[in-house]
Specification:
The protein is α/β, with parallel strands linked by helices and 297 residues long. The protein is built from nine helices and seven strands. Helix 1 links the parallel strand 1 and strand 2.
Length: 297
Amino acid sequence: MGKKAIVTGGSRGIGKGIALALAAEGYDVAITYASKREAAEAVAEEIRSRYGRECYCYQAALEVPGAAHEMFVKAVADLGSLDLLVNNAGLTICESIQNITEENLDHLLNLDFRTFIILMRDATRYMIDHEIKGNVINITSSRGERAYPECGIYCGLKAGLIHAIKAFALDVSAYGIRINNVAPGATRIRTKAEMAAMATGGASDYFWRKEYEDKTKEITSDFWDELGELIPLGRAGTPEDIANAVLFLASEKASYITGITLRVDGGLILPGMPEGFAGQSATASGGWGRPAVEETE
């Protein structure tokens, strides 16, 4: 019998990459989505047809108290067991301290922190009760280690998870359960085709540009293309990069690793480079570790 995993926010971006990678490794998967049912069902169909594994989809407003636990109960019942929880669903809303609204504060606190804690609690309880030496992996962010303007809440919550799991890992280590984090840096969460299909960007779509609303023009360069030229390893991350880290931490190859945060960012934050540098000319700056290109008239 294959292993069983829950991946929150598994319909697009990083979550989709993780769900597909787990299915390729023989996991049956349960994924959640906020509103894009078609996208979630497409992931499920790919998992079934391409990998021959089962995939269950659940619409869940995880920021609503009680929703995460309700989803967990359904998912475990459908899967029949649980070996791995991947807390991935999250949101970035950029606001300076003087402009923070209580609505956004509560939303981020619930979705990006409270839900992670509740699902870690539910997963480890289940694993202990059923004597499963399973894994919990949280998707955090390199922003938990670096400060960025208008990102105080998100950065703070991700920093909180980085520290919290050190204690949580100790709570469950005697049961053979491991808890770790994966911290992506700048990772492509939308393809150019997906952005072209969007009518406009929302409050959390930091990658969006007004010019994309003109559907007569092709998107030839975007946030991740330009930022990638400034990253020490020369490109932005992909969902597959993050999925590979999750697969490693969930495997026996990482059986002696718990309570750590594995940063997967191509060296993005090593020199203290803010992601906002993507708005500058990568060619002119040369990027970190690269000589500047001299401009000629």
